[in-house]
Automatic annotation (TrEMBL):
Pfam families: Trypsin (PF00089). This is (Mediterranean fruit fly) hypothetical protein. It comes from Ceratitis capitata. One of its GO terms (molecular function) is serine-type endopeptidase activity. GO terms for biological process: protein processing. SUPFAM superfamilies: Trypsin-like serine proteases (SSF50494). Its main location: secreted. Belongs to the peptidase S1 family.
């Protein structure tokens, strides 16, 4: 291979890697297809089974094919967080190019495929006005539910929003039914993992020119092994028991050099409250 051809090939690899990285979480298989399989080591996302009663704000967002009316085809696709009995917070990329008729929310269930919990169809999807699917900017959205969730404060409970910006080193808790490794199998039961917050200054070094104030990062930097993964998207990241992040994107899952990236709930708290107030006012008028 000539030097010029080699340079062009290296540039192609770099551009391909960046494009895949910022389209959302990518699997190790996809990374290996770019790199030729060299230097890519999968790590099990190191969580544990947890009861929904410890995280009663967690929901499973189920999706079916756009033109199917068969409810048996609904399957877990993303996570989310109960904000009120009629509003769920999730990620914008979970709802991009979706219609409400495809979606339903299941709350209060431990199992990923269970319908034992409370089930509600989706009445309305509220995307952030400046959501950018190419780079996961403003990756936050609200779901308005058709029927109220039966809040019992045991297995179904609304989360509170963080009142402060998370700081580097704060311990964050992530939950979901996402894959146990990048591109791997899905668990049947809800999982929990704890990782420290990574400052945006450090995170920007790992994701050059991509991290904004609307994002926060978390992970075992240069250690790896614990992280959110595919289909945890939209789910909660808690700091001090309050909702501080929404699972957004990352390069692979639990890789030492790449922390996970989350929508910054503290940054979006005014947007969330204003949209929720508009929804509540509309629901009152309808009733």
């Amino acid at each position: 291979m000539t030097i010029c051809a080699l340079c062009n090939y290296i540039a192609f690899l770099a551009l391909s890697f960046i494009a895949l990285t910022y389209a959302g979480r990518i699997s190790l298989d996809e990374l290996e297809s770019i790199s030729g399989g060299e230097g890519i080591n999968g790590r099990i996302v190191g969580g544990k089974v947890v009861d929904i009663r410890k995280h009663p704000h967690q929901i499973s967002l189920r999706q079916r094919p756009k033109y199917s009316e068969d409810q048996s085809t609904y399957a877990h696709n993303c996570g989310g967080t109960i904000y009120t009995d009629r509003i769920v917070i999730t990620a914008g990329h979970c709802l991009y190019d979706r219609v409400k008729e495809q979606l339903m929310v299941v709350a209060g269930a431990n199992e990923r495929s269970s319908v034992d919990g409370a089930i509600s169809p989706v009445q309305e999807i509220i995307m952030h006005e400046e959501y950018n699917d190419d780079y996961s900017y403003n990756d936050i959205a609200l779901l308005v539910l058709t029927t109220p969730l039966p809040i019992n404060n045991v297995s179904i409970k609304a989360a509170t929003l963080t009142e402060v910006q998370p700081q580097h080193g704060d311990i964050a808790t992530i939950t979901g039914w996402g894959t146990l490794s990048s591109g791997g199998s899905l668990p049947d039961l809800l999982q929990e993992v704890q990782v420290p917050i990574v400052s945006n200054e450090i995170c920007s070094q790992r994701y050059p020119r991509r991290i904004t104030d609307a994002m926060i990062c978390a992970g075992l930097l240069d250690v790896g092994g614990k992280d959110a993964c595919q289909m945890d998207s939209g789910g909660p990241l808690l700091v001090h028991g309050q909702l501080a992040g929404v699972v957004s994107f990352g390069s692979g899952c639990a890789l030492p050099q790449y922390p996970g990236v989350y929508a910054n709930v503290w940054y979006f708290s005014t947007w969330i409250r204003e949209k929720a107030a508009q929804v509540e006012a509309k629901l009152l008028r309808e009733n």
